[in-house]
Specification:
The protein is of the alpha+beta class. Helix content is 39%, strand content 22%. The strands form three sheets. Strands 4-3-6-5 form a four-stranded antiparallel beta sheet. The protein has a two-stranded antiparallel sheet with strand order 1-2. A two-stranded antiparallel sheet has the order 7-8.
Amino acid sequence: VYTPPDKNFWGLLSVVLDINKIYKNAGILDLKEKYNVALQGRNGLGDKGEFFFGDAAILNQDPLAFSLNFQGGSWQLYVAPKQGWSPPNSAVWPLRLAIIIICALLTWAFLFFLKMLDRQQKNERMLETMSDLAQIGAWSFNLETKQVYWSDMTKKLFKYPLNTQPQWPE
């Protein structure tokens, strides 16, 4: 121990600690049950010091590192999952199943849309054929764009050219 302001040597100080009790109260022993844990920085040297708790091989597991700073130095706390960083298979399957179900629903909706589109085109062709056989014309008018559409049979009945559509008078 040194005394201020000149930092004259005053004496030595010794403290007896129950290190396991300190680890338990700090939660390190509880953490060690689920994770690989190591402390580095003997004599307050941080990541330059020796490991004094756990195994130095934890550095090969890409651990999370936390700096514990205190007056006179620092320690490094390393934590890594015991099973490694990949999620357990039981956690991945629900996600995979959800993705498969969503893809199946989207595929079904797309195929249903294609089926309805095909059905509409068949109905239009059938209606066109029936109007030709019955010699009944059909026409439609779009109020927003003011465009007129005449079927080919209507054009034939009114002797209008087949390659053009009539125009709405302005």
